[in-house]
Amino acid sequence: MLIVVGLAAGLVFARFDADPKRTVERESERLAAALEHAAQLAQWKDETVGVSASGNTYRFWRQPAGSSTWQPMSADDVLQPRVLPAPLGIAMREYAGLPVAADAILPLRASGRNEPYVIQITSPEWFTQLAADPLNRVALTGPIAR
User: What is 19-145's CATH topology?
Assistant: First the structure.
């Protein structure tokens, strides 16, 4: 009997985990929390933190005060590079109201005052948009059917 209950629970979990809408939503919530954390870290460490995205991967960067070189973040578990589960994709859409180049790193300044930006996470059926305001609050719109 215990085996049957375990198998049923496993099937229910697998079924929920396979929901494409929920996957887009979960990954968007994870990224929104990481973006807010990164903005706070930039203020606390008094250095610029950046985020880049390409294909199905995003990562965070740091730019120490007085430097013009971006360095990958490595010491913060929340800001480790993230590969989204297939078939999700991620793209930077806007920064300060303008389109963003595919290889751009969006800066989150130590002052805490940042330009608004929009990042989009997509699947074949759904998409979400993460929009940040100048005070680093990230609002999630979606999932929206495509």
Answer: minor pseudopilin epsh fold (3.55.40)
The model's pTM is 0.84
DSSP characters over the chain = -HHHHHHHHHHHHHHHHT-HHHHHHHHHHHHHHHHHHHHHHHHHHTSEEEEEEETTEEEEEEE-TT----EE--S-GGGS-EEPPTT-EEEEEEETTEE--TT--EEE-TTS----EEEEEE-SSEEEEEEE-TT--EEEEEEEE-
Rg (CA), the chain: 17
Distance of CA 23 to the CA centre of its chain: 13
Question: How does pLDDT run along the chain (146 residues), one tens digit per residue?
Answer: 545 545 554 544 444 457 889 999 999 999 999 999 999 999 999 999 999 999 999 999 999 888 899 999 988 999 999 999 999 999 999 999 999 998 999 999 999 999 999 999 999 999 999 999 998 999 999 989 88
Tell me if 35 sits within 8 A of 138, measured CB to CB: yes
